[in-house]
């Protein structure tokens, strides 16, 4: 089955992400409340998360009724077109709840099963409405912040790398992740915890971070951001793997990735097995 060119899909992803971002930003200004908790009391969902995903689903159903949908806040549906939209309506939910301006609408379209290990990401958009930043990429056409072409930082030594990471919603996993960070902090320039995987990956793409790694992400957290980072020249994968997954995601320029991978593997060996390993 033929599909529209990635640029056509990209235009749709960008338009929908911008529309959804405007709604998220408006709801933030009106005040945000927790609607429910999910995997733990820390893992919250707001009414805006649900409303924004409903808006995105409706816009996609109108534009691409035969595509599948795989989002954070509603049931997955498979389509007949071979394409699936992978959506995080508000990535950085805790930042959103607290009014920290680092949250994003993440919209990606992939070919094949909605599995990061096997899908082919065709186009993606990550919109931070609080800062008015629109990150985009389509397969083979580069990564962009607005109309500015993005490139990762090259020739960075690990000892001078600014690394981003994140922590899970379960306390024992956070303690394990903090142990790993404690083992790394003396081997890099510094560490940032921005609070949104989508924006962390876009930060690698535009050079605001040299590398990013996190364990336990969901596919919707990174579907668009990983494409944007790859199209900006990053290698995105895991340990001895070129596909990111739930177990681990690493993103960095290839030369820095090669320095970082054995160090992270050593830290995973040094600390007890992650209690939340899935
Ligand atoms: C978040 C990720 C972040 C991670 C958080 C959370 P959410 O996604 O973007 O990188 O550290 O624990 O998973 O829940 O805000 O969509």
TrEMBL record:
**Might you name a Gene Ontology BP term for this protein?**
inositol metabolic process
Q: What PROSITE patterns does the record tag this protein with?
A: IMP_1, IMP_2
Which positions in this protein are listed as binding Mg(2+) 1? Answer: 72, 88, 91, 221
**Swiss-Prot/TrEMBL keywords:** Hydrolase, Magnesium, Metal-binding
Catalytic reaction annotation = a myo-inositol phosphate + H2O = myo-inositol + phosphate
One molecular function GO term is: inositol monophosphate 1-phosphatase activity
User: Which InterPro entries has this protein been placed in?
Assistant: IMPase (IPR033942), Inositol_monoP_metal-BS (IPR020583), Inositol_monophosphatase-like (IPR000760), Inositol_monophosphatase_CS (IPR020550)
Q: One of this protein's Pfam families, by short name?
A: Inositol_P
Specify which residues bind Mg(2+) 2 according to the UniProt entry for this protein. Answer: 90
Keyword Membrane listed? The answer is no
Q: According to the lineage, what is the superkingdom?
A: Bacteria
Q: Which cofactors are required for activity? A: Mg(2+)
Q: Could you say which enzyme class this protein belongs to?
A: hydrolase
> What EC identifiers does the entry list?
3.1.3.25
Report the family membership: Belongs to the inositol monophosphatase superfamily.
User: Can you name this protein?
Assistant: Inositol-1-monophosphatase
Q: What organism is this sequence from?
A: Cryobacterium luteum
